[in-house]
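Support request, please re-run this one:
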Amino acid sequence: MIDENLVAESLKLLGGFDDEAVRRYKPIIDAVLAEVSDAAVDDAQENDPRLAQLAAAKAYAVICAAENDDVTSFSAGDVSLTVRSASENAKAYLDAALSGCTGLLKDSGFAFMSV
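Re-run finished. Output below.
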């Protein structure tokens, strides 16, 4: 089983969440834990920290998509500021976590092949 505590701690770091927020997002965490566990190859060690990081990144991406109220640009006169949104950061975290799990996940590709 993927270490749920490690996922929760990683999620706190990624999103700046406190314990109460993590408890509120528990249904999302549980769903993502099941998804990542199912996607792991049979011989992957489920306590591998890369799988926990992937689960945290996926949960963070789901949370950001559900609560996307990011302000990414501000202008006042000649001064303007543009920052990456939490959703963009979540996507970057998820991409990094996925690339770190090469070999730990089942091939989910599908292709039409001639016979």
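The helical segments are 4-15, 19-24, 26-39, 49-66, 86-100. The chain has a mean pLDDT of 83.
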